Amino acid sequence: MASSAKVTLFEDIFEVTALNPDGKKFESVNRIAATGTTYECDLLLDINCQIYSIKDGEKRTVVLASTLNLDGTPDDHFSYSASANGSEPSLADAYDYVMHGRVFQIDYKKDGIVVIAASFGGLLMRLTGDQRHLSSILPDMRLYILIK
Hints:
By secondary structure, the protein is an all-beta fold. The chain contains 1 helix and 8 strands; from the N terminus they run βββββββαβ. It has an 8-stranded antiparallel β-barrel with strand order 1-2-3-7-6-5-8-4. The two termini are 15 Å apart. The N terminus is likely disordered.
């Protein structure tokens, strides 16, 4: 899977530190708070808990990618075919939960810290960490989040 390195914008293993830290707001959505084990980034992420469950204390690999194509060719970002004929493998094949979305805000804080906000069809993500590790993520960028 070395070819997927071209499409990966960010990858880390996150440990869930809290589930619904501000209380449960929606029946089918859980908000997870997690901390990266390698880059020590903080992640706040909404997930559809009816199709994917995460428990407090679990560790999950989280990847942000610009495309699901293993050869790095760009996606059209307007449609998705889950390999209807099964002949075209994709990055999504190796993950349990995949969402497509768009970065809507990037805030640069002091000491090289950046806060990235993205929406995946209304499910929100806030990723906070060192700018050196998150420099590939740009304003208004369309991207995928993949979790296993």
